[in-house]
Each structure stands twice: as C-alpha cells, then as structure tokens.
Task: structure prediction
Amino acid sequence: MVRIATPEAFGMAIVAPHVAEFHRRYPDLRLDLAPEPRQVSLANHEADIAIVLNRPPKGRVFARRLVDFRLCLYSSADYLAEHGPVASRAELRRHPFVWYMDEKIDDPELLYLNEVIPDARPVFRSTSISAQQGAVAAGLGLGLLHAFAAEADARLVRVLPEVEVKRSYWLVFHVDHQHQPRVRAVVEFLDELIERYRPQF
Result:
C-alpha cells in the first residue's frame, strides 16, 4: 500500500481519473488517495507521499518542485448571459464570488483572493475547491479556480485573462522511502501524469 496526500484539486482532477490505469500496471499495489485541504505529517506516517504547495523548511524529507500551475477567474456562460460580460477589474466588485473559508485553511498559499481582487464579495464559501467549482458552474458568480480542472469543465468560461495566480506543487516523501520500489512506482506514475497534463497547468 502507498498513501498519497494531495491538495483536493490535484487529487480529484489529476490522480483519481487514472487510478484504473495505475491498478492495471501494479495490480498488487494498493493506492490510498487523501485529497484534503489540510497539511499532513510524513513523520507521523499520515502519508507516504505528499503533494504540497511549499517546500518543507526542514526535516528528513526529499522534496522537489513537481509543476507550476495557474488559478484563473471563471464564471458560467449562463451567469454572463444574465449579468453581462466582465470588461475590467473595476467591475468585479459588483459580482458575487465563490471562495474558501479562510479560517479553515492552514496553508497561506491558498489565501490569494484579497491580493488579486481586494474588493471581492464572497457569497458562498467552502473548504472544498470542487464545491467552489460546482457553485461557479451552477451560475452563482465568479471564482478563482485551478485552470487544469476548470478548462475541462464545459460549463465554465474564462473571465479577464489577465487575472491569474501562479503557484507550485512540490513532491515530498521521507528520505527513508527514497529507494522503496512501491514509492518509486507511484512517483514515476505521478511524473507521467504531470507530463500528460503539462499544457493544462
């Protein structure tokens, strides 16, 4: 068994759709996926591999940058048809936003709304980025969503292409696992997925 902890968007959009392929390749290896918004402890064996938003500052871990990704501004086509196009940043203050519950997020890399859109008015908040994307797609308002997930959602439309947040995913695991075949198998599979999805990031 290998347990991998990831941010929700990465786990749901990149890993989960390919677990059948992984199982066919490694039928004797069980993969546990924990797509959660909270940080996990490798030292406490909460996961064998973690995808995180910051390089760990210390500890006996192996860490490398996995891929850079973008968060962009989206709405639904139905919402824009009803409320009209968004032509400038100044117009954003009149639109409702979908966002995180700031007090429930322990990773400062996720708290980017105010730095990009200081006047944003959240009317729905969730710790789940999938719930946020669903609310935006349903026509509630605007949201900053992961491009690699949102671009595959036919219900969504990109708004103001100049509004963009860039972040990075880091691959982390304990140094004691560096040469374990089961861990290496998962790491190699993740690297393959990154290459497939690279244009979407």
